[in-house]
User: Which sequence fits this backbone?
C-alpha cells in the first residue's frame, strides 16, 4: 500500500497554533489516518510534498491532542492506574529548598497507562505476531512505502517505532536503515542555566526545522516538570538519559547511585511518556581501565557516571546486572532502549579502540536480550572518528547487533574546529548514514563550548537534515532525489521564489539573495548576481536544450548544428539576457 | 632533508603590517630560506607550529617584498622586456567611457620577465632535469618532507608549484596528493558590484584564515587594475579565468571572441604575474548536445561561454585548437594550467554523466600535451555529486590524467540547502580529498544566491580548511593528526585558552564559550557548561588515568581495583569538581 494507491483525501490543515515556515508551505493531511505532510506550492502550478515533523501546533499550557488514545484503547491490552506520586526530589534541590514544586504543568493530568498483567505493548511484539497496527500504517504513509515492509523490519529488530503509550500525542515515526534517515535534536537545561519556557520553545523550534525526535537532557532543577511540558507539547518521540536525573537525586554523587533509585526514576519517566531511554549498560568494570591511556578518556557523561560508580564499588555496572528488569518495565509501556555508548571516543586519536569496541560487543549481547522481551532497541555510536574509520563503525555495529538501528553522534572527523563542529560532524554524519546508520544526533556550533541557544538549535537541525538527506540520496532511497531535482529545476528555470520555498531554510536563502540583489524584480529576473544581467550560463544552457532536446547522439546533433548556428546568430545571439526578460 | 635535520634558526617575525589571528599566535621563520610558520604558544610552555599562508603583511599601496627575485635572476634564463602596453579596454567599459583608467596601481612598476629564447621556466622543466630549485626547498620545508619527494612529484606531473616569474612576491607552495590538501578561495568583483579596496581586503582576509591560493574571478570594470593590486599584495599563488576578461573585451558577446583577443588577454595576465589560469579547452563541439537533457545543463560560466561560441560558429573550441600555442606561452612565464571542467554537473541529477566524463577524457589528452612542453597542469572537477558517486570522480581523473593534481569545487552532495552550501559541499570536499584530490575550491554560504562578503569568505575558508585537514588525517598524512591531538589534550586538561588558540577560529571558539560562562575564572575552571561545576566526565576520566596509567591488561587492572576503590572513596569521591579547582 503506498500513497499512490490508497484512497487519499488531502485536507489543508487549519490549526490555530500551526505556523508554517514559509508562506508557500501548507500542512496537509493524507489518507484515513490523516498523516501530515508539508505541501510546498510552486509558482508554476506544481507542488512538492515533504515529510513533516512540526505537528499541528499547540498552546504550550494546554498541550497537543491525544492522537493515539483511541488506537491504544482499541487494543484493549492496557490499564490506567494511579501511578507513582511525584516527589519534590523529582524536581531537584530547588524544589526541596522551596518545599514545593516551583513550576507546575498547567494542562490536563491523565492517569498513566501500562500493560495489563501478562501483556506486552511493544510495536515489536505486535509485529512479530503479524499484526499491523495503526502506528505501522501511519509510518507507511509517511515513508510512502508498503506497510508490510514496516511490519517486517520492526519484527526483525532492524527498525523501531518509539511510542510510549503515555505519549499518545506523538505522530508515529520509524527509525531503521530501510527508511528515511532521521535526525535527533538535544535540548534541556543544566546546572548553569535553566528555564522551562526556553526548553519548550527550543522543542517547538527544533521540530519546526524538521527534527524527527528530541532528547531532553536536562540536568538542573525542575527536571520532572520541564519534561512534562516538553512531552505534552511534542508531536515527535522524546528520549532521555534517566541516569542524569537519578544522579541529581543523589546530590551528584555517582557512588551513591543504586538500582532502586534508578528503577524508580525510570518508572517516573515511563509514566510521563518518554519514548526511548539511553541506558549505559555496556560500561563494564573490565572496560574502564582500557580508557586509561586515551587522549581524552571517557567523554560520555553517562559513561563516566557509571565508570565512577564501578570504581567506587568495584562491582559490575548495575544497569548491566539488572538489564532484564529494565526489559520487563519497558515492555509494559513500549519504551525503546537506546543503548548508550558510554565509552565512545572523544578525540579522533581514540577512535575504534579496544574500549569502544569492547563496549559495542556488550551492546550487541544486550540487544539480543532485549529482543527476547520484544523490547525495541537502537544502539548509540560515536563521537570523534577520522573519516577513513567512519564506515567500520556502522559495518561492525550492523554485523554484531544483527541490524539493530544505529544512532550516532556525528561523528566529528577532526578535533581542530571548535565553533564549527556542526560541520566537522556533518561530514562524518552523512558518511556513516550513507553506510547504514538510521538516525543522526545533531551537533550544534556550541559543541564543546557551551549550551546551544535557539539559533544553534536551528543551525544544528538544518545541518543534520541536509546530511541525512544527502545520505538518503546516496543510498538511492526511493524518491529522495525528487526534492533535489525539484529545486534544481526551479533554479534552472529562474523560479527564484520556488528555489527559496523548496530550500531547507527559505528565509536564509531569500535573505542571502536579497543582500546582493534586493530589488523585487530580481526575484523574477533571468539572471543572478554571480554573472550579472549581461551574461548567464543557465540561459545559454536553455538555448542548447531548445536546439538538442530529446535523445540524440552527438553525431546526429553535429549534423543539425550548422543550420542551428545560423539561426542562433539570427536570434540575436541570445547569450544575452535582459533583466526581467 | 626535513625541518628536524636542517640547521634551523627560528626567528620571530617583526613586520609592521603583519596581524596575527590571535595573541598566542606568532609568525616565525625557519631555516636558511626563512620559511614562515605560525607558532601557537601554549599555557603549559609547549608550542605548536602550523603551516602559515598569511605572508608578512603588506601596505596595500606598496605591495609585498619580491621574495623570489634573486632566485629567478640567479637562474639566468629570463630577460626583462617592455611588455604589452595596458589598454583602456583592459579595464572595461567604465575606462572606455571615462577615457582613462579610473584607478591606478600606486606601487612600484617593474618590467615583466619572460624566458630567454629557447628557455623553459617551469618548475616541472627544472625538476625533470633533476635540478632542485629554491622553490622546491622552500616547499619541502613548509611540508616538512624530503625535497627529493617534491622534485620527483613535480617532475612526474603529480604535483605542481604555481609560480609565475612575474609574481615573485609569492611564497612557494605545492599542490599534489602526496602533500597537504590545499584550499582555494574565489574573490573578484562582478557586473553588479565592484570595489578594488574590497577585493584586496577579501584577499588579505582569505589568507589570514589560511587559504592556499586565491582566484580573482572579476567580471566587471577595472579588471586589469584590480588584478594588479591583488597580485602585488598576494603571498599566495593567484589564479584567473582569462575568458572572463576576454568576454568583457567583446562586450559580453561570446560569438565575437577570437583566438587573437584571448591570446592577448593571456599575455596581459602572464605579464602581471597570474600563477595559474583556468582554460576551458575540453568543451568540445560534440559534447555540447550531451548537456541538452540535463536538469541544469551547463552551469560553468566559462563552459557556457565556449559552448555559446561553438554554437555560433559551428567550429571546434579555439582553446582546444590553439592549445599548443598556449603551452608555448605558459612555459615562458611558468604559468600552470588549471584545465576547466566547463561541463561539470550543476545538479546531483547530472553527476558523472556522458558530458562530464567526455570532457574529462579530453582534459586527460590535454594534460599529456601540456607535459610535452613541461608545462604544469592541474585538472578541475565538479560540482554537484551524490555522496556515493564522489569517489568515482577522483578515481577516474587520477587514472585518465596520469595522476595530475585534481582540483574540485566541493562537490555539493545535495541541492536542497541554498544558504548552507558551504556545508553540503564540505561533505563532498572532505570525501573527495580523502580519496586523492589535491586542492579544494571553497564554496561559501552565498553559493547560488549572491556574492560572498567578508564574513562569507571567512566562513568558506574555515569550512574548507577543516575539510582539507579532515582529509589529511584520514589519509594518515605525516603529522596531520598532531594538531587534533594537541587540541584534544588541551581540552582534556581544561586548558581553555590553549583550546581556543589551537582552534581554526580562536575568536569564535572563545566567544561561544563566553556566551554561557563569561566569567574570567571559567577559562581556568575544571568544568564546562555542558555538565556544570558539580560533575564532569573529563575529570573522572583523569581519575581513571591516575589509577590505571601505563599499559595494563584489564585483568591486571581489575586486581588493583578493589584497593583503588577504597582510596577513591577516601579521596572524597572526586567525581566532584569545584570551580577553579
Assistant:
Amino acid at each position: 500500500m503506498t500513497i499512490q494507491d490508497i484512497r487519499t483525501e488531502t485536507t489543508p490543515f487549519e490549526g490555530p497554533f500551526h505556523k508554517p515556515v514559509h508562506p508557500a508551505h501548507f500542512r496537509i493531511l493524507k489518507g484515513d489516518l490523516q498523516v501530515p505532510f508539508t505541501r510546498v506550492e510552486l509558482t508554476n502550478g506544481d507542488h512538492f510534498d515533504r515529510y513533516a515533523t512540526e505537528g499541528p501546533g499547540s498552546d504550550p499550557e494546554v498541550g497537543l491532542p491525544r492522537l493515539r488514545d483511541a488506537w491504544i484503547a482499541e487494543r484493549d491490552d492496557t490499564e490506567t492506574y494511579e501511578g507513582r506520586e511525584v516527589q519534590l526530589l523529582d524536581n531537584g534541590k530547588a524544589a526541596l529548598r522551596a518545599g514545593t514544586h516551583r513550576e507546575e504543568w498547567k494542562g490536563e493530568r491523565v492517569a498513566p497507562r501500562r500493560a495489563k498483567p501478562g501483556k506486552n505493548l511493544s510495536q515489536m511484539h505486535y509485529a512479530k505476531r503479524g499484526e499491523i497496527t495503526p502506528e505501522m500504517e501511519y509510518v507507511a504513509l509517511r515513508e510512502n512505502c508498503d506497510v508490510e515492509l514496516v511490519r517486517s523490519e520492526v519484527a526483525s529488530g532492524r527498525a523501531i517505532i518509539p511510542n510510549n503509550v503515555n505519549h499518545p500525542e506523538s505522530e508515529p515515526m520509524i527509525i531503521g536503515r530501510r527508511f528515511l534517515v532521521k535526525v535527533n535534536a538535544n535540548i534541556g537545561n543544566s546546572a548553569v542555566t535553566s528555564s522551562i519556557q526556553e526548553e519548550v520553545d527550543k522543542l517547538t523550534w527544533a521540530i519546526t526545522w524538521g527534527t524527527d525526535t528530541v532528547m531532553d537532557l536536562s540536568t538542573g532543577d525542575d527536571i520532572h516538570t520541564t519534561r512534562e511540558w516538553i512531552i505534552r507539547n511534542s508531536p515527535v518521540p522524546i528520549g532521555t538519559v534517566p541516569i542524569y536525573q537519578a544522579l541529581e537525586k543523589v546530590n551528584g554523587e555517582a557512588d551513591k547511585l543504586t538500582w532502586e533509585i534508578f528503577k524508580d526514576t525510570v518508572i517516573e519517566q515511563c509514566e510521563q511518556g518518554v519514548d526511548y531511554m539511553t541506558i549505559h549498560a555496556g560500561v563494564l568494570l573490565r572496560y574502564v581501565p582500557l580508557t586509561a591511556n586515551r587522549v581524552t578518556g571517557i567523554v560520555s557523561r553517562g559513561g563516566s557516571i557509571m565508570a565512577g560508580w564501578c570504581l567506587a564499588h568495584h562491582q559490575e555496572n548495575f544497569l548491566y546486572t539488572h538489564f532484564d528488569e529494565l526489559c520487563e518495565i519497558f515492555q509494559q509501556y513500549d519504551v525503546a532502549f537506546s543503548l548508550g555508548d558510554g565509552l565512545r571516543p572523544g578525540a579522533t586519536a581514540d577512535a575504534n579502540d579496544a574500549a569502544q569496541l569492547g563496549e559495542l560487543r556488550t551492546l550487541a549481547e544486550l540487544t539480543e536480550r532485549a529482543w527476547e522481551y520484544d523490547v525495541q532497541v537502537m544502539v548509540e555510536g560515536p563521537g570523534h572518528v577520522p573519516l577513513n574509520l567512519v564506515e567500520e563503525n556502522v559495518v561492525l555495529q550492523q554485523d554484531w547487533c544483527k541490524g539493530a538501528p544505529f544512532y550516532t553522534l556525528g561523528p566529528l572527523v577532526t578535533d581542530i574546529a571548535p565553533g564549527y563542529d556542526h560541520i566537522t560532524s556533518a561530514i562524518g554524519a552523512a558518511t556513516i548514514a550513507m553506510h547504514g546508520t538510521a538516525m543522526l544526533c545533531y551537533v550544534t556550533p556550541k559543541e564543546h563550548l557551551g549550551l546551544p541557544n535557539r539559533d544553534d538549535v536551528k543551525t544544528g537541525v538544518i545541518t543534520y537534515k541536509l546530511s541525512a538527506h544527502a545520505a538518503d540520496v546516496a543510498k538511492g532511497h526511493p524518491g529522495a532525489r525528487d526534492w533535489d531535482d525539484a529545486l534544481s529545476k526551479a533554479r534552472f528555470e529562474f523560479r527564484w521564489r520556488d528555489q527559496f520555498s523548496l530550500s531547507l531554510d527559505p528565509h536564509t536563502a531569500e535573505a542571502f539573495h536579497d543582500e546582493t540583489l534586493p530589488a523585487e524584480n530580481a526575484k523574477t529576473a533571468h539572471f543572478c548576481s554571480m554573472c550579472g544581467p549581461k551574461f548567464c550560463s543557465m540561459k545559454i544552457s536553455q538555448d542548447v536544450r531548445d536546439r538538442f532536446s530529446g535523445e540524440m547522439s552527438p553525431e546526429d546533433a553535429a549534423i543539425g548544428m550548422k543550420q542551428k548556428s545560423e539561426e542562433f546568430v539570427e536570434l540575436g545571439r541570445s547569450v544575452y539576457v535582459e533583466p526581467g526578460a
Q: What stands out?
A: The two ends of chain A are 46 Å apart (CA to CA).
